From TrEMBL:
Listed PANTHER family: BLL7424 PROTEIN, DUF1501 DOMAIN-CONTAINING PROTEIN
Classification of source organism: unclassified sequences, metagenomes, ecological metagenomes
Name of the protein this chain belongs to: Unannotated protein
InterPro entries in alphabetical order: DUF1501, TAT_signal
Pfam families in UniProt: DUF1501
């Protein structure tokens, strides 16, 4: 039995989350749903009043299922790479922006202009300090970003807690709200801009009788549900200016990631106070049939990723000057391909950073070298929190000790001023 056979049956765990079931209500207060929009709030305070939007925006793009960083950014100069992957390796002569050690997967072509302009970079051999090959457990550990702590909050919620530019819409998840957003700070989740609505209402303000009556009905309630509904109605009303922004979804690839990033861009241009966004892209759990450099599962996923990110930054226009996007995945894949032309659960991975503050056009990280034993991993030489902390310090000025408690970051150098 191969490692693939032993692990494939358990990978359904990545599609469910204990926290997703809890929805944070027991730990963090009320959650209210209006249509397909979910707003959560702290248990002891009403919805925060909107203020001046943050002068920075961070978009966290999660590659769910454990993307193979050795395919995304290929260590072509490490001889073990080609020995370990006789069927699925990306040929050296097909790589983009190759330097003496690394090169980008050829499906990254849409992102080449950003690389050339110094607005895109990668950090290799990143990850958790100790290997964790369970999708469920690793996702939670990565998104809590406080291993060994009793904290039950996510790092993005802690970041929002340090933000002086508080808004009811400060944190917005497109799709499922990840563990990184859990905590006392109010956040919202929605499937799209048009899903932010109130059933039966034609406007998201008091001019609509349906909306006004709901607002009046819940205004005096001091229950958890009442506070949740007040927060939800207030957040939906505050989101209304976004709907006046042109919908540019048609300029993106016609897939879930393209539509999600279109919603993020529209919200940013609506200037309603959203400072942190989360978006998921999957599935990257390629235990079998990964494909080649020109076709198949990996090629298709990388194409979707690259075309969607490129469309996103083009769509943002002048607003791109305040937006930093970072990719993250729960862990990487094994170095050696398995008998099914796929890759089993590994350890180290690669992170991509794009946009404001990124010192791009360069590969960062300390390369540990690869081995070709059947259980060989890419070792982690840079704790992923050092990368995130550098983004936080460079873009927000927040205390990284608060956002990443108990952690001393190492310098990566990928962000300006760091």
């Amino acid at each position: 039995m191969t490692d693939h056979d032993a692990t494939a049956h358990c990978c359904a765990e990545m599609h469910a989350s204990r926290r997703g079931v809890l929805q944070g209500t027991a730990l963090f207060g009320a959650a209210a749903a209006i249509g397909s929009t979910v707003v959560t709030m702290a248990p002891a305070s009403p919805a925060a009043a909107a203020t001046q939007p943050a002068p920075w925006t961070i978009v966290v793009l999660s590659l769910r299922g454990a993307a193979d960083g050795l395919s995304l950014v290929v260590p072509h100069a490490d001889p073990a790479y080609y020995t370990a992957r006789p069927r699925i390796a990306v040929p050296r002569d097909q790589l983009l922006r190759a330097d003496a050690m690394f090169g980008l997967h050829p499906a990254m072509k849409p992102l080449e202009p950003m690389w050339a302009a110094g607005r895109l970079a990668t950090v290799h051999a990143t990850g958790l300090p100790v290997a964790n090959r369970s999708h469920f457990s690793a996702m939670e550990e990565v998104e809590d970003a406080a291993p060994g702590s009793t904290l039950r909050t996510g790092w993005l919620n802690r970041l929002l807690g340090t933000d002086a530019y508080t808004s009811p819409l400060q944190g917005l998840s497109i799709g499922t709200r990840p563990s990184a957003m859990y905590g006392p700070e109010q956040t919202m989740a929605t499937s799209s801009s048009t899903s932010v609505r109130v059933a039966g209402a034609s406007a998201l303000n008091s001019s609509d009788k349906r909306f006004a009556s709901l607002t009046q009905a819940w205004s005096a309630s001091s229950t958890s549900m009442g506070r949740g509904m007040q927060a939800a109605l207030g957040a939906v009303a505050d989101y209304a200016p976004v709907l006046a922004v042109a919908d540019t979804t048609s300029s993106y690839p016609s897939n879930d990631l393209g539509r999600a990033l279109a919603t993020v861009a529209r919200t940013i241009k609506g200037n309603v106070g959203s400072a942190v966004f989360t978006v998921d892209h999957g599935n990257w759990d390629m235990h079998q049939s990964l494909g080649t450099s020109t076709s198949g599962w990996m090629f298709n996923n990388v194409t979707t990723l690259a075309t969607s990110i490129a469309a996103f930054f083009t769509d943002l226009g002048p607003a791109a000057g305040k937006v930093t996007l970072v990719t993250i995945s729960e862990f990487g894949r094994r170095v050696v391909e398995n008998d099914s032309s796929g890759l089993d659960h590994g350890w180290g991975n690669v992170m991509m950073l794009a946009g404001a503050g990124v010192k791009g056009g360069k590969y960062y990280g300390i390369w540990p070298g690869l081995a070709t034993t059947s259980d060989a991993d890419l070792s982690v030489t840079t704790d992923y929190r050092s990368v995130l902390a550098e983004v936080v310090a460079s873009r927000t000025g927040a205390s990284t000790a608060t956002v990443f408690p108990g952690f001393t970051r190492e310098r990566v150098g990928v962000m300006s001023g760091q």
